[in-house]
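Structure ticket #2291
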Amino acid sequence: MVIVVVLAGIAYAAWHFNNNEEENGNRLTLYGNVDIREVNLGFRVGGRVEQMRFEEGDLVHAGDVMAVLDKAPFRHDLDLATAQLETRRATYQKMQAGTRPEDIAQARARVAEQEATLKNAERIYERQQRLLKKDVASRQTYEDALARKSEAQARLASARAALNLALAGFRSEDIRAAEGELHAAEAQVAQAETRLQDTEVIAPANGTVLTRAVEPGAIVAAGATVYSLSLGSPVWVRAYVAEPNLGRVHPGMPVMVATDGGGQYHGHVGFISPDAEFTPKTVQTTALRTDLVYRVRIIVDDPDNKLRRGMPVTINITTGTAATSQ
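Resolution: structure written out below.
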C-alpha cells in the first residue's frame, strides 16, 4: 500500500513538472524560457565591402549604419541615369512646346521662294509654247521649260507640306511616346538612387551584434549575411499552460517574470496558441499523451538587457480564479 501511495505521488509531481505549471489558489505559476528574436542582415545589392563598423557583442541602435559597400560603381550608374533623364526631358518639352516660331517663319519663306520659282517657270513655259506654235523655238526647248515647270510645282507642294507640319506641331502619338520615355528615365534614376542607398546596412532596431560574417575588402552577393543581430525588443518568454487552466489566462493579462538570478520584470500575456500540444514531446507513453498544453507568449515590458536567449524564468500570474479540479 505504501509503495502505491509513493508511486502515485511521484506520478503527480512528474505531471506538474512536465506541464511547467503550478497552482496556488488565485495564483498560477508557469515556467518558461526567454525567446529573443534574431535577424540576419545583408546588402540588397552585391559589391565590395568597404566598411564593417561594429564588432561582435557591440550594442547598436535603430538607424545605425552597420556596413557600407564601395559606392563608386553605384554613383556612376546614377550619373548615367540622370544624364539620360535630362535628354528625355528635353525631348518631351520640345514636343510639348511644338515648332518654334523661327522654324515656321523659315517654312513660310521656303513656300514663298518656291511660289516665285514656279511663276517664273510658268512664264518661260508659256513663252516657249507660243514660240513652238510659230515654229520659232525647238521642240527640245519647249520640253525643257515644261520639265522645269513641273519640278517647280513639286517643290512648291513639298514646301507647303513642310509648312503645314510646322504649323500642326508634333503628333499626339509622338508626344505620348516621348512622355513614356521620360517616365522610364525617371524610374531608372529612382532605381539607381535605391541601389545607391542599398550599399548601406541599416540596423532595423536596437540590439546586440551576434555575428560579424565578413571583413572589409570581401566581395559579397546580394542578400548574403554580413551581420547577425539579436534584437533588444520585444523580449518574449515561451511558456505552456495546461488545458484545465486555459480559461484563467487571457491576452493582455499582467504577469511578473522572475529569473533565477533574482531579476524581476513586468510583462503581459501577448498570445495564446489556438493549437494544443502534447507534453513533453519527447515522451510517447499513453498516459502522458493525454495531457494537453497550450503555448503562451509573454511579452516582457521593461528588460534591462540582462535577459538572454534560452534563459529559464518563472512567470507568476494572479488569475483571481482558483484552478478547476483535475
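Closing remark: The longest helix spans residues 101-133.
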